[in-house]
Amino acid sequence: MLFLGGFFIYAAKDLPSPGKFAERQVAESTKIFDRTGTVLLYDIHGEEKRTVIASQDIPDTVKKATVAVEDDNFYHHIGIEPKAMLRAAWANVRRYSIRQGGSTITQQLIGNTLTNRRERTIFRKVKDIILAIELERKYSKDEILTFYLNQIPYGANAYGIEAAAQTYFGTSARTMSLAQTASLVALPKAPTRYSPYGSHLDELLQRKDFVLKRMQTLGYITKEQEEAAKNEELVFAPNRQNILAPHFVFHVREILESLYGDRYLEEGGLHIVTSLDWDLQQKAEELVKKHALKNEKQYKAENAALVAIDPGTGDVLAMVGSRDYFDPEIDGNVNVATRLRQPGSSFKPFAYATAFAKGFTPNTVLFDLETNFGSDGAKEYVPRNYDNKFRGPVTMRQALAQSLNIPSVKTLYLAGVEQTIQMAESMGITTLSDRGRFGLSLVLGGGELTLLQETGAYATFAADGIFHEIRPILSIVDISGDILRAYTSEERRVITEQSSRQVTDILSDNEARAPVFGAESALYLGPDIKAAAKTGTTQDNRDAWVLGYTTGLAAGVWVGNNDNSSMSEKGAGISAAGPLWNEFMKFAARTYAAEDFPAPDTAPAGKAVLDGKLGGEAIVPIDKLSGKRATEFTPKHLIEQRAYPQVHTILAFVDKNDPRGPIPQNPEEDSQYWNWEHTIEQWVLTENAQGGHYNELPPESYDDIHTESSIPRVMLRAPYAGEIIRSRAVHIAADVASFRPVTRVEFYFDSLFISSDFTSPYTYTYILPQRITGALHTFSVRVYDDVENMAKDTREVTIDPSSGVTIENPEPSDISAETPLPSVFQELSPDI
Known about the structure:
This protein is of the alpha+beta class. 31% of the residues lie in helices and 18% in strands.
């Protein structure tokens, strides 16, 4: 107790007089620079605006609104709230740090004037308590509240309620409406985030309504006054600050404020080096404005946003949140790059990347047919393609490149909704945490993303599957030159090289997307710049996107209206956002080199449906003449390996969780099986009616015209085996017997065809060549019936030199003195 008493006396002896609360020490401002550290983007402080006004000049509504949201027990405590402090203390204990303070208005005043709010220590908290109690002892509640309302920061360098009224509404605090009052009272909690000149105007208006609700609950205003103030349209004064890259700067400032608080930013003299490439930023701002003005006339889309990121580091090189930050007519201060919007089909690559990681391939065949994906009593879901056409069987490559919706929904199902969200999250998407909201429509843009995060995710594809945290700040140096933070480029592999390269290979395949987008679309940067890109267009044409990348740069473009109104029907991603993306990427390629993308492995997966076939197929050897299964007696030249395509849903051939594993035993148990299969059955019927042969079964019977018993029989009567030929003219004769009509008999000398005979008796006189090699040779005969059954017979003979034939290189054993005639000729029965 003696210690606390002594500490109280020590702290209280320096308590300032009331006049000093109207003064605020001006310290060195914080400066934000581009990545070179030479271009000053913004000076956080500038001229501190403050106009001290007397208590009687502060409207009663301002005081009541402030008390309602900051300290509703203000008029009843002694400067501290023990219960609130205990709650905060318990929360701090659980977090192992001092993050909450349970501060009253009196304590906040102390923290803004006498102590260092950035110092989060127990000592500072105790000092604040002692000073707050002493302040309450010396001054009245009205005096303390007046000090507070003249002292606290409201953002935009405005300190005190009067300066805030002049800054934001161009009026005096005395003449503000209730709605204006509530909006200003909402600001001090987070002046940068809630700034009407920032990207979160909607959050400011929500907090304004909260202020009004608290006032009504506490009896300060009536329900009618609350409703009238909620419905009042607020018009803020134009913001004309000396600032470069304003959307980017305020994004950076939000980050800094979360780290250090607004007061330290404005007085701490920090030196901030950001990741911004000022040359690229200037070009981005120029092109955004140019194309937004054009789109306003062509597509009724008055705004646009652009983000560029270095895939190798995650550095934000350019950020443009609207066509003109200072144009209130289009809500230009809103940074659409950090606002949630539905991405349309630009989300599809995440589903395909997940499917490829599972083992599916770009050649996997899916059916683009009208399909109701509702199952198990679920609500019907029948997506359409952008042109309301159905293309039948397509590969995943074609489906992604041409942005086909139905096969993409199937791809999401095969990949898994949860797994796809996890993939997107691993690539930096943080806005899909409410899993219960998302189903198969997610692949068509059913979840909200920010342009900044989605561009960062596409940068992961550009980096061959390596994710880098988005890095808008490179370093923070304090007023003494000490480095407070140096941001390194942290990376981690989140996609396999193969899966990432497969996605990139498709998105850069101009030929594959040409059937829909054309060969010279805005996604094509020419033969010298290798780029991958994907469009996105949301329902009712509210958002148009193009996201794409080279090996050196990833860039995303959004086009639309800040009020979420629709563009014209032609305002799709390729037409509205494509030209801006195209021109920016061509400019950026001068500095950020675009090299060839690494090619994926294209080895077959080993399953027909994964390797480009319609589903499965039975390969059966068929006799061409009978149309039945071939046998060992079927002539080889009459055998064809005939494919019988078995066209079914892919779920009949692959387990979606193990696509390269065994074929499912009971595929019909899958909840989507019959939804997909019924449409394919109808497709098969239509195709077969037009000459197709899908789902035909191979014949069960075997070739019965080529059998062992139906083979003809043939015997060569002349020359006989072992005969010595002593004349160049050799008589050849064959006896033939056959069940079926004989179509021809062929004669051969050695392997040389010499003649055919088509009628019985089958004979031929052959004149031997003048020169032959060796004396031993063969004569043979082949007989064919009308179905190409064949039989043959061969006789070996000796050519004697007396025949008049010159025999080159004869062997001694080639010529025998005499070979006797066979004792018996076997005759062939003609009726065998």
